């Protein structure tokens, strides 16, 4: 069973307990954590979304070209649940999905 443990700020995963730091999030998502803040629109084109999804999740999402590009959480759930967790890369993709969920699904205590 995987879950968030708010007392220790860790993910409890089937393979171990994991603490995610700001540096981890910056590295995983390619975000800068120092310097000027970003407070404007970012590139949300379909091509940008595809390239970032491949880099972060290891899979290319289906993007509807007639609407604004976005990732459905259900797609991320499918990617996460398909991981066998038998290699370092698969565990890293699994953790990236978990971080993505926390960012878009606030945890209620």
Automatic annotation (TrEMBL):
One Gene Ontology biological process: meristem maintenance
The Aminotransferase-like plant mobile domain covers 1-77
Query: Domain of life here?
Result: Eukaryota
UniProt xrefs under InterPro entries: AminoTfrase-like_pln_mobile (IPR019557), MAIN-like (IPR044824)
For this protein, the record's Pfam families field holds:
PMD
Q: What is this protein called?
A: Aminotransferase-like plant mobile domain-containing protein
């Amino acid at each position: 069973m995987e879950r968030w443990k708010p007392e220790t700020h860790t993910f409890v995963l089937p393979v171990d307990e994991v603490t995610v730091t700001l540096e981890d999030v910056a590295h995983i998502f390619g975000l800068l954590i120092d310097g000027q803040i970003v407070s404007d629109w970012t590139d949300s084109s379909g091509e940008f979304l595809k390239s970032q999804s491949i880099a972060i999740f290891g899979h290319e999402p289906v993007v509807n070209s007639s609407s604004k590009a976005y990732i459905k959480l259900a797609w991320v759930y499918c990617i996460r649940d398909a991981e066998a967790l038998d290699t370092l890369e698969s565990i890293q993709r699994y953790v990236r999905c978990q971080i993505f969920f926390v960012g878009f699904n606030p945890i209620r205590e």
